[in-house]
Each structure stands twice: as C-alpha cells, then as structure tokens.
Design goal:
The chain is built from 24 helices and five strands. The chain has 570 residues and is mostly helical. The strands form two sheets. The chain has a three-stranded mixed beta sheet with strand order 3-5-4, sandwiched between helices. It has a two-stranded antiparallel sheet with strand order 1-2. α1 packs parallel to α3, α3 crosses α5 and α11 packs parallel to α24. The longest helix has 31 residues. It is globular, with a radius of gyration of 24 Å. The mean pLDDT is 95. The protein binds zinc ion. The site of zinc ion has 4 residues, from α14 and α15.
C-alpha cells in the first residue's frame, strides 16, 4: 500500500493489448521450459506474476468502470473486448501452468512456493482448455448481458423511475401501504422480464453443460466445483451440510417468522412484509452517505489501529463507490488491484440498514486484502470464496458494539441483523441446492426449473411460500431470477452460508472474549489463501461446519442472544 497512490479518478484507463500480452506469455513459457536451473525458473515465475498483475490490474479497472457506468460506450466496448479475449489468453496462461507442473525443478519450486500453488495449477488445467474457448466466450457474453439487462431495469413508482436497488427503500418502508404498492409495481414489472431472464439462463446452462461434457465431466456440477477451487470438500459433504441447515435452522427461521408477525402486528405475513420487522419500520441509519462514512471512520478508529488506518486510506483515495445511480450495476462487491496495491468497494446505498452492512461487510473483504498484502505468491493473496466471506461477514459482527453510532436504537438493528443472518442460511442452501439440480438436469425447461425452485422454497423456507400468495412472480417460482450469483458465479453461494456459520463462531467467541476473537480474526486475514478452507479453520482452532453437530452447536447460543435483543426489552 503506497502512500503516493493517486486518487481513483486519476488512474489512467488502459485496455491491455491482449495479442501482445499473449505473445509475452508464450515467450515466458518458452523461457521456463528452457530454464537451466531452479533459480532461473523462480525468476521466470516472478516475471510471469508481474505481467499477470499488470493485466489483472487493467482488467479490474475496466470491470469497475463498467459496473459504475454500464451504458458508457467506452467501457462497454472495453468490457466486451475483455470478454472476447480473456478465454484465448487463458489458454496461454494454462500453457505456462503446464510448464510449471512439468518443470524439472518442481520439487524446489514447490518447497519455495508451497504445494497448494501446484494444486491450483492442476485445477486450472482441469477447469479449462482450448477446446472450450468458444463456450467460455459465449458464457462471458451471456453474463454481461444479464448484468446489463438487470442494470437497465427502470421501475416507475409514484411518478419517479428507480432501479432495483433504489426500490429497496420503498419495499421495506415503515408504511405497509407503501410497501404493498411498491411490491405490486416491482413484481409486476419483473413479471414482464421473466422470459428474457429465463432465456439468458437457459443459454447459460446449456453452454456450461456443453463445456463440462467437452472437458470430459459428467455434468457441470463436477466442473463447477473445480472452477471454485474446492480443494477440500465435495458435493456430498455440501449435501449433508444443507440437511443440517434444514434440520436446525429452518425450524428457527419459521419461529422467527411468527415473531415477525407479532412485531408487525399482522395476521398474515405478505410478500411485502418479509423484509420488515417493526411496525414503525426497520432501523434506518442516520445521515447522508458522507456522514455514514464519517461514523464508520469513528468506529474503525475505535476497533483497532489497523482498521483505523486502512479505512481512512480507502476514503482519502476515493476507493469507495457507495451510492446507487441509474445505469450502475446492482449489488455490492470488493475487488483488488494488484499493481495499485489496493482494493475498492462498490455498492448501491439505498438508505436502509444495508448501507451499514456494506461499510462493514465489504470493508471486511478490503481489510483482509490489506492484512495479507505481504504475501509474496499472488495466488495466495486471497483465499477461496467461502473463506473470503468469513472475513467480511465476521467484520459485520465485530462492528456490532459500535452500532450506537449509526442507529438511535442499536439493539433493534442488532436484532434484525442477527435474525436476518440466521434466516439467510435456509435461503442460501436453497440457492445452492437449486444450482445442483439445474446442472444435474441441463435439459429441464424453464418451467421445470421454476417448479424445482418452488419445491426447494417449500422445503427450506415454508413461511416465505405462504407469504407469496397473491404475488404472481414469486408464487410461480421466479425469486431466483434476480439472484445474480446464479447467473454470474455458479455454485458461489453455499460459500456465504459456510462463512456465515463461521462468522457466528467468531460472534459467539467475541461476546465471551473480544481480544481472543480479534486475534484469531487477524490471524485468519493474514493467512490469506495460503491454505484451503478447512485447513484455515483448523489453523485458527475452529471446527468445520460440515462436521455433524457443528451447525447446531453454533446456532444454539444465538437464539439466546436474540432473546436479549428482543424488542420487548427495549
Ligand atoms: Zn462478500
């Protein structure tokens, strides 16, 4: 992290010359093959890293600018170019990876760089080769089409136009009539988009299935796990874990929905009540975006010297893009620039408590990247996705003691944050099981997919299905169409649930012994991706969520915490 870093808006915009990069990669690969000794091989490996970091930095810049302005011609063009060129470049990168695996100096290289790197190389070869370049290009095109399509959604409500994120404020309004009206407009609008979204997904499923079969897999489930670098767990373990969530958490979330009904004073929960907890409205954070950022600074100043320094750094260098704007991609994310040596935070503030969650969640991701900045092997800077999400989701809970800064009644926030986090688990496994089903049944029709989704909702979240009555879009099994991960990042969702369970472990420990919990957290952040998920957990002394009984043991104390926060005590 250099102090001389320019502000984001002053970074030069560069579209890599992919042909030139490809030639350089070929050159480096040839040099590696001809390396006379270990030392030369290591120098060549470092040279490759430098080149890749530069390309990744430029590409990440394009992606960020594009997601900020999906209608800006310049960025659309650059993004399109990248989508087209990346698969061919990946073939060349794979040739380099192959040469690393075949190097006569591999034993020394493995000793120096760690054997996990070589496992990663093996996975990259299993995940992709020149036979599937066309399919990969098509996949990229479809994913971009999905995000462009949804970013272009304009919903007319009470005389104004909003994007999906901006509608969030009305969908969780304290006024039930506003919620009802907003949800009617919102879901009727989405009703008109079902066909176009289902069509994009249908093509994505087909192209992914084709890719998997060309590479010699039974279906895309196998390939999906390899692409996610799941080194130490299997679909079978995930299935068993989902059942644990079903047995332990589904009943609790049903109970919470009864609690919610009482709190809202309604006889039946409707679709527009599902995200609301209090008659007077969900806890709303104070202040404008700027003021929220100031409060967050205060919080991170108190939490630790590292968080204090780094949040200020991000703010001063304009690395946070927080407000929702027309044409901006939905959702929120953190991404890292290896040459600039810093992350950025992207989000869509909409005035709800979700804004505070961004300042903690996405900052948690950024903080991990910062804490792991000294790791020399680029592949180890960040862990696999489920472990990345531990860093972010745990930060949400480390931030809880400071919620008085943002909310007049912080316990109300803490209650809804925790209740929502618990209720997230059955939803998260629904998304996961759905994707397993989809890729195991690639020939299924859109209607069959919707039915499969609906059935899973009945299994994991029956309270939702009851609430959907009267809402055509939801009743007919279309909730998943706006879950972007299902389109853009197959099988990336169970990760959130695994991380949520581990974040709960941190929360339980933090309530007992803050120092110990924080120390473990810092250790985990610093370890980056030097180990796979389950080994990382072992290193900090936490149990695997896959182990029978662990979900139950982790969730049980939370029910008591919820009671402590319970509004009746307010
Ligand atoms: Zn995250």
């Amino acid at each position: 992290m250099t102090k001389t870093l320019a502000k984001f808006e002053d970074w030069p915009f560069r579209v890599p010359n992919f042909q030139e990069v490809g030639r350089k990669v070929d050159e480096i690969t040839d040099l590696l093959k001809a390396a006379p000794d270990y030392k030369t091989a290591l120098t060549i490996y470092k040279k490759m890293n430098k080149l890749m970091d530069k390309v990744m930095d430029d590409c990440t810049h394009i992606q960020v600018l594009y997601s900020l302005e999906t209608h800006n011609e310049k960025y659309v063009k650059a993004n399109l170019k990248m989508d087209e060129e990346m698969p061919s470049l990946s073939v060349k990168i794979n040739d380099f990876n192959k040469a690393m695996l075949a190097s006569p100096f591999r034993p020394e290289l493995e000793k120096k760089l760690g054997s996990l790197l070589f496992t990663m190389y093996e996975y990259s070869l299993k995940a992709f080769d020149e036979r599937v370049v066309e399919e990969a290009q098509e996949e990229n095109r479809l994913v971009s089409l999905y995000s462009q399509t949804t970013a272009g959604f304009r919903i007319k409500f009470r005389g104004e136009e909003y994007n999906m994120s901006q509608m969030g404020k009305f969908l969780t309004s304290s006024d039930r009539e506003t919620r009802r009206e907003a949800s009617e407009v919102y879901y009727s609008y989405l009703d008109t988009k079902i066909d176009i979204l289902e069509d994009i997904y249908d093509k994505l499923v087909k192209v992914r299935d084709k890719m998997a079969k060309k590479l010699g897999y039974k279906n895309y489930v196998e390939l999906g796990y390899i692409k996610m670098n799941r080194f130490d767990y299997t679909p079978e373990m995930v299935r068993n874990y989902r059942e644990q969530i079903h047995d332990v958490v589904t009943p609790i979330s049903e109970k919470l929905s009864r609690e919610q009904k009482k709190l809202l004073g309604v006889t039946n929960l409707k679709v527009y009540d599902l995200s609301s907890w209090f008659q007077k409205g969900n806890p709303v954070p104070k202040g404008t975006t700027e003021e929220k950022v100031e409060l967050a600074q205060k919080m991170y100043d108190e939490l630790s010297p590292d968080t204090s320094y780094f949040f200020r750094f991000m703010n001063e260098h304009h690395l946070m893009f927080l407000d929702a704007k027309p044409g901006k991609q939905g959702g929120g994310y953190m991404t890292y620039f290896p040459v600039h040596g810093c992350p950025i935070i992207f989000s869509n503030f909409n005035g709800t408590s979700g804004d505070v969650d961004v300042l903690t969640h996405e900052f948690g991701h950024s903080f991990q990247a910062y804490m792991a900045r000294k790791i020399k092997v680029p592949e180890y800077r960040m862990p696999t996705m489920e472990s990345c999400e531990i860093d972010s989701m745990s930060m949400e809970f480390f931030a809880e003691p400071y919620m008085g800064l943002f909310f007049d009644k912080p316990d109300e926030y803490r209650y809804t944050h925790l209740a929502d986090a618990i209720r997230f688990l059955p939803y998260g496994v629904t998304v996961d099981e759905f994707q397993h089903w989809v890729y195991e049944h690639p020939e299924a029709s859109p209607a069959e997919r919707d039915a499969a989704w609906h059935e899973l909702e009945e299994k994991y979240t029956p309270y939702k299905v009851k609430a959907y009555k009267g809402c055509h879009y939801m009743e007919t099994g279309h909730r998943w169409l706006t879950q972007s991960h299902i389109f853009a990042s197959p099988f990336y969702y169970i990760d959130y649930t695994l991380a949520q369970v581990v974040a709960f472990m941190f929360f339980n420990l933090d309530r007992k012994n803050h120092e110990r919990a924080w120390k473990k957290y810092i250790k985990l952040c610093k370890l980056g991706g030097q180990y796979p998920f389950l080994t990382l957990l072992k290193k900090i002394g936490f149990k695997s969520p896959f182990e029978d009984g662990v979900v139950k043991k982790t969730i049980k104390p939370l029910v008591k915490v919820l009671k402590d926060y319970h509004p009746e005590n307010f």
